[in-house]
């Protein structure tokens, strides 16, 4: 879990992007980003301007979200054409809670292999060595996506959905 001071939070893009109407304070958002082992749903725009959603493993670091994908993937081509993206990170089962937002994305110069190793450790741990091997066999053509949130909000229906009828 990331431990940040109030000064760190003030300069963190997550803190700057968080809506005043968000269900969670900054510290809860940062904890959710650091602890969630859920895919980030990333919305980009295709060549015709229509939304395209891709689920990607992610890491939160210094207020930005980082993902890996193949350089030939649609999501990489879409981001190259248009940096504006939407995203959601939410549980799939009740009681529902999560976050959603939009921001700017780019393909950045960063060690894709090191990030992919961290993503594999986060999402697979020691499970599924075959998938780990396959993912790493394609690392030469991996690129890193960096997302800087510009607006973010959260919702949390746990209290409402856990009440007895």
Written overview of the protein:
The protein is α+β, with helices and mostly antiparallel strands and 165 residues long. The chain has a single domain (6-156), classed as Pnp Oxidase, Chain A (Roll). Strand 1 (40-45) and strand 2 (51-56) form a beta hairpin. The protein has a 7-stranded antiparallel β-sheet. Mean pLDDT is 91; it is low at 1-7. It is globular, with a radius of gyration of 16 Å. It has helices at 6-11, 13-17, 26-35, 74-81, 112-123, 129-137, 158-162; strands at residues 40-45, 51-56, 59-61, 64-70, 84-90, 97-108, 142-156. It has 7 helices and 7 strands, in the order αααββββαββααβα. The longest helix is centred in the last third of the chain and has 12 residues, at 112-123.
Task: Compile the SSE list and pairings.
Elements: H1 6-11, H2 13-17, H3 26-35, E1 40-45, E2 51-56, E3 59-61, E4 64-70, H4 74-81, E5 84-90, E6 97-108, H5 112-123, H6 129-137, E7 142-156, H7 158-162
Antiparallel strand pairs: 1-2, 1-5, 3-4, 4-7, 5-6, 6-7
Q: In short, what is this structure?
A:
This protein has 165 residues and is of the alpha+beta class. The protein has 7 helices and 7 strands; from the N terminus they run αααββββαββααβα.
Order of helices and strands: HHHEEEEHEEHHEH
Main beta-sheet annotation: 7 strands, antiparallel
Total number of domains: 1
Mind telling me which CATH architecture this is? Roll
- Tell me the overall shape: globular
CATH class: Mainly Beta
End-to-end CA span: 36 Å
Radius of gyration: 16 Å
- Number of β-strand runs: 7
CATH fold call: Pnp Oxidase, Chain A
Structural category: alpha+beta
User: Segments where pLDDT lies below 50 for 5+ residues?
Assistant: 1-7
What is the residue-averaged pLDDT?
A: 91
């Amino acid at each position: 879990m990331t431990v940040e001071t109030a000064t760190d939070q003030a300069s963190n893009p997550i803190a700057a992007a968080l809506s005043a109407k968000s269900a969670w304070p900054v510290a809860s958002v940062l904890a959710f980003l650091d602890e969630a082992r859920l895919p980030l749903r990333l919305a980009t725009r295709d060549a015709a301007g229509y939304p395209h959603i891709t689920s990607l493993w992610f890491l939160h670091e210094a207020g930005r979200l980082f993902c890996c994908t193949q350089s030939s993937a649609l999501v990489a081509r879409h981001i190259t054409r248009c940096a504006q993206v939407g995203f959601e990170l939410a549980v799939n089962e009740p009681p529902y809670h999560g976050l959603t937002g939009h921001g700017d994305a780019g393909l950045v110069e960063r060690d894709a292999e090191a990030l992919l190793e961290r993503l594999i450790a986060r999402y697979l741990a020691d499970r599924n060595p075959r998938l780990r091997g396959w993912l790493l066999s394609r690392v030469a053509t991996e690129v890193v996506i960096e997302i800087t949130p510009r607006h973010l909000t959260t919702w949390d229906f746990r209290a409402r959905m856990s009440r007895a009828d």
